[in-house]
């Protein structure tokens, strides 16, 4: 099971490949879990703002395809460390779940600071392009589909991450 941060989840709920949401391709790869805070940021705030991606994410939660979990705060000294990093509340919740849930294998993000903090906490983090590559590697979809997915989400990601993954899927590097 992989947990997702808000921005990656929103990205995958915004774009389609071959008439299918990128989020549904992501759900083919592995079960998704999010924190209540990520749900607040993606669904609750999104619905209040009239965003279609929020309705998409809510539908997947209601259908049981995305699990929502609570997390507890850590000791004040550790919470102070998270504050010192300057993490947003949703990203702090992602770190908490990564550390509290043994069934969470990796955290999917496109936030470089969150990636570093998770790594420094000894937890696996995947950039969204890496997650797409994992789907290809696991045989969930072929390299051509993986490349289409990367192109679809590229407007919301740093270009270097996308081009690096595209080259790897093409077998160039």
| Computed CA radius of gyration, to the nearest angstrom | 16 Å
What's the CATH C level?
Alpha Beta
* SSE series: EHEEHEHHEHHEHEHHH
Give the total of domains: 1
CATH topology: the name is: Rossmann fold
Number of strands: 7
Strand order of the largest sheet: 5-4-1-6-7
Shape by Cα distribution: globular
* Sheet/helix structural class: alpha/beta
Number of helices, counting only DSSP H or I runs of 4 residues or more: 10
Helix content: 55-70%
Low-confidence parts lasting 5 or more residues at pLDDT below 50?
A: none
The main pleated sheet reads as: 5 strands, parallel
Distance between the termini: 28 Å
- How much of the residues is beta strand, in percent? 5-15%
Give the overall pLDDT as a whole number. Answer: 96
Tell me the name of the CATH homologous superfamily. 5'-nuclease
Quickly give the CATH architecture: 3-Layer(aba) Sandwich
Structure characterization notes:
The mean pLDDT is 96. 38% of the residues are buried. The chain is of the alpha/beta class and 173 residues long. It has a five-stranded parallel β-sheet. A two-stranded antiparallel ribbon has the order 2-3. The chain is built from ten helices and seven strands. It has one domain (2-170): Rossmann fold.
Task: Provide tags for this entry.
alpha/beta, Rossmann fold, 10 helices, two-stranded antiparallel ribbon, five-stranded parallel β-sheet, 13% strand, 61% helix, 173 residues
């Amino acid at each position: 099971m992989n947990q997702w941060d808000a921005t990656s989840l929103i990205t995958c709920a915004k774009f389609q490949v071959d008439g299918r949401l990128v989020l549904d391709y992501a759900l083919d790869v592995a079960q998704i879990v999010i924190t209540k805070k990520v749900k607040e940021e993606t669904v609750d705030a999104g619905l209040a703002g009239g965003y279609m991606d929020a309705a998409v994410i809510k539908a997947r939660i209601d259908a049981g395809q995305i699990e929502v979990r609570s997390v507890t705060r850590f000791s004040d000294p550790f919470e102070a460390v998270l504050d010192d990093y300057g993490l947003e509340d949703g990203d702090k919740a992602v770190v908490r779940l990564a550390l509290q849930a043994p069934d969470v294998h990796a955290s999917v993000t496109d936030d470089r600071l969150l990636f570093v903090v998770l790594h420094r906490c000894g937890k696996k983090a995947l950039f969204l392009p890496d997650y797409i590559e994992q789907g290809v590697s696991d045989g969930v979809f072929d390299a051509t589909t993986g490349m289409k997915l990367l192109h679809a989400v590229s407007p919301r990601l740093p270009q270097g991450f996308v081009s690096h993954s595209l080259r790897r899927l093409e077998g160039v590097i």
